Amino acid sequence: MKEPLLNITDVCLERGGRLLLENIELQLNAGEIMTIVGPNGAGKTTLLRVALGLQTPTRGEVSRLTGLRIGYMPQKLHLDPTFPVTVKRFLSMVSRNTADRINQLLAEVGATHVLDSAMQTLSGGELQRVLLARALILEPDLLVLDEPVQGVDVHGQSELYRLIARIREERGCAILMVSHDLHLVMAATDRVLCLNRHICCSGAPEMVTSHPAYVELFGARAAEQLALYVHDRNHRHEHCRDCIREARNV
Amino acid sequence: MFENFLLRALIGGLGVALVAGPFGSFVVWRRLAYFGDTLAHSALLGIAFGFLLHINLTLGIIVICQTLAILLFFSQQQKHLAGDTLLGIFAHGALSLGLVALAFMDDIRIDLTAYLFGDILSISNSELAWIFGGGAVALFALFKLWEPLLLITIHEDLARVEGVPVDRVNWLFLGLMALLVAVMMKVVGMLLVTALLIIPAATARRFSGSPEIMALLASLLGGLAVCLGLYSSFRWDTPSGPSIVVAACLLFVVSTLLPKGNPFQKSR
Description:
The complex is a heterodimer of chains A (250) and B (268).
Chain A: E1 6-15, E2 18-28, E3 33-37, H1 44-52, E4 59-64, E5 70-73, H2 87-91, H3 99-108, H4 124-136, E6 142-146, H5 154-171, E7 174-178, H6 182-186, E8 191-196, E9 198-203, H7 205-209, H8 212-218, H9 220-229, H10 244-249
Parallel strand pairs in A: 3-7, 3-8, 5-6, 6-7
Antiparallel strand pairs in A: 1-2, 1-4, 8-9
Helix pairs in contact in A: 8-9
Chain B: H1 4-29, H2 33-41, H3 43-53, H4 57-75, H5 83-104, H6 112-117, H7 125-154, H8 156-161, H9 166-188, H10 193-205, H11 211-236, H12 240-257
């Protein structure tokens, strides 16, 4: 079997006396989409930062395949309004990209119309698409996306997830992403990793959503909706009804 | 009407404005105004240090500013105090320590106002050499760091993932800022250094479609402010440093009345 692109073994991360990540095991293979889900403060972004090498774990090992090209899409961009930068300029910063190449990238993410707009004037969906284009510039083997549909309306969210799935199909790159919203992402992922500082459960979306640890974490209603979304109409969980409100907050 | 001292003042002022433009732009983009202020406040301590060791005063300022920049860099790693609280402690601590240190030196009587608000009209040839030497070094280094600094300004982690040595670039930038403060002291004084950094840059924003244009425009506007300030100082005998800053402010006010010459209208 081929070596995984990313291998995280027994990683713990402690900060200020608090354990943020505990015994994390994660292997990501070429061409695979893995989604990390979990409640607020579960350490999802921290785990991505560890995977990217931006943060050193207190214990455990993180190894990336040598020569692995990573494209990263951060959660938020805090651009000062005084910083004059157009989308075109933003996309030509990493490496000297020709106008053709930039247009081609923008076409791939469906955002050619914003080429000459200022970054600060983009809508939520446009910004996410531009950030995605930026992550694709270096022809990555691995895309790391931190809440890629943040600030996008529900309709736009499913469109973005379809786009992400299509990028994987066309480019064959692996994708590691963090997601907040559960039901939309399920159709576009191979594996789900349910995180609450430690890994609660992981596996194919259908398996994870029926896993007791998952149901406990997100509530029955969420699990039920997911199960519905993932093809199986008869697969229902009738227990634990009182977690509904909690599930809505997720 | 052009006398020798006035010509020197003009050349020195223009030199400083030229360097201040691009640096000031970064100060505005990265919200470092208070940081620049803190560095400037330590200049008086640098002067005391210079007198104490009998070294060139500009060199004394550079040494102390660099030291403070290093201290700040490390203190900002801790999370117990907010950044601005920390800067406040350093700024006022360094200023007061400088005043106290100078008071201990009995044989030295300095013109405090000249250090606080600048004394461009008494600029000497050696000070001109410092401005142009230091300024050239700072500009050249900034030119080399330009793209990495822009990437960091956009997103530090993204820059890291894309292979920018973020910490090293930040270090160098802080060091250059410290150098710049020392060089700008003579022209506008320690209390007004930040003004000459940020006001021309803020004025330039309305008319700039790219970072480079904004930096260049900030230099030009700073130069214009120097000319206007010097003229007023010469004509009406107003204090030179504050006159330059007043001119910069006037340019800013006038600019807000002009139509925006750029496509960035929606940016808040």
